[in-house]
Fold each of these.
Amino acid sequence: MQIHLISAFPNMFEGPLSESMMQRARDRGIVDIHIHDLRDFTDDKHRSVDDYPYGGGPGMILKPEPIFRCVEHIKEQLGETPARVILTSPTGEMFTQAKATELSKEAALIFICGHYKGTDERVRELVATDEISIGDYVLTGGELPAMVVVDAVVRLLPGVLGDMDSAAGDSFQGELLDHPHYTRPEDFRGHRVPDVLMSGHHEKIRQWREMKSHERTAAREKSGATFKSPPDKPVEN
């Protein structure tokens, strides 16, 4: 997969994309990530990427020209490779695990990181194929949301995780949240690992994990959720 990130503040990506799983994915050639400085696509001596909004009001708006030029430049590099163009925006579709799975099947993704008060509407109408929000709150810019989406997508690519079952069993990958996990020591400050996990009885462990996933999902869900039936028989907890 090719991922292209367009930002007026490209240095924000250096740390998160150079550590842990993201760096391993890049080292293995599973994903090729390019960061584009939006200011490189301006045509004035001040390298301006924003301007005042028509109609007045507070804040500055990202201009369309440098964004159009940058996306067109990237598409020329991609050639025949199709790409989804994602605008990070608080007015966008709420990001979900289903959306991450959908995007993980693409050959190329282009992210336009919103900033300031907003982005010229013509970018959304004429350039973006998707508009994504990661939550109902305000951030300084779209760089952090882009990193969240990239992380969620890249970890689903074959070969990124050592054990694909660990991705398949993640919270939100299916209908239920993940069950609790424990590791050594068996007793930590008087809090013991549940006996069922120490039993070696695989079916009881499976039932316990399923039951805990249902309990956790029901506790977190506000309303209107549809759950699988819990195990018929109670298991040791």
Amino acid sequence: MKILMIGDIVGRVGRQIVANRLPELKEQLGLDFVVANIENAAAGFGITSDCGREILSAGVDVMTSGNHVYDKKEGIGYVESELRLIRPANYAPEAPGRGMWLQRTAMGVGVAVINIQGRVFMPPSDCPFRMIDKLLNEVGNRASIILVDHHAEATSEKMAMGRYLDGRVTAVVGTHTHVQTADEQLLPGGTAYITDLGMTGPHSGVIGMDKESVLGRFLRGMPTRFDQAEGQGKLNGLVIEADDQSGRANSVERISIGIAAS
């Protein structure tokens, strides 16, 4: 199975890049399954049903998220109702939505996608390590391909999760920082890993936001509304080739594709 995991989609530019390039990439790369983080898809903060439908119609199979998933009040119901959209599993049990997607593909391959959130420099949540153990027990033998989006700030926490899950899942990818790291690798146990997928959206600003509004916050220290950046964008992600039977990753390739936004 060939899988693409896409870094945080940011705003209109990010959605446009996915719509314009993903169908072509699926054909060129022979992709079987696509996962994308969408927590910043609606004007840079949160998700709405319109934005979610746009992303799914472009060819994304499962959408993961993170700490901004509830930022749009009108999107909370969508998080609760759309089964292809998951939020961090280590949120409170009463939080809208679910933390895992588990199904068989059209080719009959069992696939699980799990979303967890880190705790270092992040909002409070339950232990992601204990939660992932619980979910893997639930998966059991129902899926050979297991993909984990670890939405976290600290590099060390993401790397620790990768080592903790090596040989137990197909891939562990980090999201949240919007800066793609150059440490893609196959861990000794056969798990694909990268500390951060990066960002799919406008790269002309500061992690997707207009540079002037961000600089204003740093220079004056006053509350500032962050507007999404525009212009030149990139699709950041990771292509993973995995064995359908064992679930082991056989190869991993980091991608960063530029495209002009209209």
Amino acid sequence: MTLKIHAFPLSPRSFKVLWAANHLGLEYEMKLVDFTKNAQNDVAYLALNPNGRAPTLEDNGYVLWESNAIVEYLASLKPEAGLLPEDLRGRLGVTKWLFWESAHWDPACAVFAFERVVKKLFARGEPDPAEIAKGEQLFARAGKVLDGVLAKNRYVAGEKLTVADISVGAALCISEEARFPLEPFRAIQRWQADIKSLPSWGKTAALRVPPTP
């Protein structure tokens, strides 16, 4: 087995890559990057990913970081799964959502993730109301865009599941714990139920076990 995924499964960004691998049915070895023990800053890990973040992928000597890039790479290993359209316009129609996720959706979700999940996990105090208010503004803006598309399509980039759904949908692994303000967005709620019903989601969610002290 040459494929290794260095990940912290409690993180949506790591969840994203693990979900993609599980959905594609790829064999891989998961290497835990235990954030609770500051493992992301170990010298050996920084040699793989100088950002000190997770996930990171290794494939027979090839190293790749940034979760959306890894998801695209994994999908390319199994093109018959159809997660990456083969035609140029279809492919870019998916890729734009990966950029959108990084620029708009992830920052909005990350506020709630940090204030309501990370702070609790690492005993870093109570949520900051000012930050939550900022997150609500970001989420309302991004949520309106996503909800509008999902009101027309079953999935983010059309009627078929693609890496766009995996990229954008992964944050929903903490939607209840982080209390994302999803109430106004009926289409996102419908889509969330759809993707969470996938066997690959359930398999990945089972990995979200807090590390032992």
Amino acid sequence: MILWYDYYMRGQSDNLLKSKVLGLRRSGKTYSEIKKSIGKNIPKSTLSTWCSQVVLNRKQKKRIADSVKMNILNGQKKALVVIRKKRESHLAEIDGKIKNLKNVFLDKSVAKIALAMLYLGEGAKSRKGSLMLGNSNPDLINLFVHLLRKCYLIDEGKFRCTVQCRADQNIPELEDFWSRLTKISLNQFYKARIDPRTIGKKSLKTDYKGVCRIDYFSADIYIELKKIGELLSKQV
């Protein structure tokens, strides 16, 4: 008798809950709003089954659709925040692992090896009497000229620069940027080269500074860097 009564009361409770759900749905509430209102985490599939016969008007359907879209956007924003925090934490961990390398270039031999590897990876190898390296990355160009000056007694007059850019870019501004970065006088800049493929096309990257090509006329430095690379490769 007690078991039957418990079963009966449970059924009554379920019917009351279902009735509340249907009432909320008829008023145009989303499933998320319904669960929050009744304070129970009912599966969405169950709510969908219960409310399958509920007819909503156009205004209610639009409100629900807009609410679902907003919930999706909010969920995506929260996910991006979590991803960004994880990435920041990961990058901070990597910074901690390599911070002891920040003074590595104080050793001139290490700096020269770094310069050789940089040049053999990015520089021109067909010009026997000089070095030539071009890149659009200001950090890489800055590193190249910094290492050259650190490792060798440089004749500043032997530097030459050439800016290679898009047709709609401001050449004087680009040359001024690269001159200040490399500390090479504007008087030592060759005439800028415009990529003919970009004529009539708008540049999309506003921070793009073109390509800076550095020439330094020294056959001895070129040969030495090349031999350093050969020496290291033989050790491997």
